[in-house]
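Re-run requested by the PI after the first attempt was lost when the workstation crashed. Everything re-entered from the original request form. Ligand of interest: calcium ion.
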Amino acid sequence: MRNKIFFAVAATLMSTSLYAHDVTFEAMDNNGDKKISKDEFHGNAIGRSTYSDYDLNGDGSLTKEEFGETGYDEGLFDDWDANDDDELNHYEYHGGTFHYHDDNEDGYWQEDEWENAASDGVWDI
Ligand SMILES: [Ca+2]
Ligand SMILES: [Ca+2]
Ligand SMILES: [Ca+2]
Ligand SMILES: [Ca+2]
């Protein structure tokens, strides 16, 4: 029984790391206009961003303590918490990270902004 669980976990980890190679600018740019819209980011962020790594208790939202592990300034927490419930759900978190890395504030990630986000550890790669 134990072995079965082990193999299931190992297989999941392997498929996750294979999947991670899809995390490229071209793969995320679904409509090929050379920029990543917020919708494209949201559509690709689920399961590929590091959000779930920071959700330590796995309840689907980040508390202030969990947010403290992300490396973002803790002062951003209240800005990103749109509904003021003191937790960041993945929409709030990904919305916040999207705006944070949209340096020219045009509502899209150009390739250089995408690369900054990637090197800041937004993606699980
Ligand atoms: Ca696009
Ligand atoms: Ca949590
Ligand atoms: Ca919230
Ligand atoms: Ca931009």
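Saved to the shared folder this time. The CA atoms of residues 96 and 115 lie 17 Å apart.
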